[in-house]
């Protein structure tokens, strides 16, 4: 033991050093009219399974191999759809953010890259923020000018009959190197105004579907309110400054949120 090691103080409890570090990597490449997966590498709580292809589209399911994210965990998923590839990613079950052995927040970073004439459909099951959890989630997405993307995210604040945990999210989307969308949200205990009438009010589930499609360029989608009453949730379709549209929804619970998003997507946008 060196003197420096001998004198080093022990790590305090609740340090951010506690927790799982894990990265999953997916790469899809176009081959002979279809899409193959030259990289499919899971780690820690991420188990990646190949699903049956649909046409030229390769499909991957993310399976949770252990409870995560917990406080102190550092999780990351990287997915790339190379030129001309078509990739569909889903998950086997909802992701449950739980209180961990440390007061440090968990982080869950998703980095997506879609190259020219490639398509990525990122459609996981919901994220559930359990009471006492603290999660910081980021999405960083880089799209080529001719790339297509469907991104869906759903958040349920608390399990049935319990208060929510804390969730801080940021979504940054760049297309051709220029920012297409950059948004942040903060929900749960300690977040300012998250349950006010200006944000969620009495609702406890929120989600969105982002669609980027060069085919929107000649005729962009128009702004639409997609629901008539607040009892079962509210949704709105907003065109973005580019060939893209964003469906945003809030609802009393995850089940009604999913129904609202499914209906808005299937009846208003076909991609």
UniProtKB/TrEMBL annotation:
Primary localization: cytoplasm
Gene name of the record: ureD
Protein name (record): Urease accessory protein UreD
Keyword Chaperone: yes
Family, as annotated: Belongs to the UreD family.
Subunit structure comment from the entry: UreD, UreF and UreG form a complex that acts as a GTP-hydrolysis-dependent molecular chaperone, activating the urease apoprotein by helping to assemble the nickel containing metallocenter of UreC. The UreE protein probably delivers the nickel.
Molecular function via GO: nickel cation binding
Function recorded in the entry: Required for maturation of urease via the functional incorporation of the urease nickel metallocenter.
Alphabetically ordered keywords of this record: Chaperone, Cytoplasm, Nickel insertion
Cellular component GO terms, alphabetical: cytoplasm
Protein localization: Cytoplasm
Annotated InterPro entries: UreD
Pfam families, sorted: UreD
Species: Streptomyces arboris
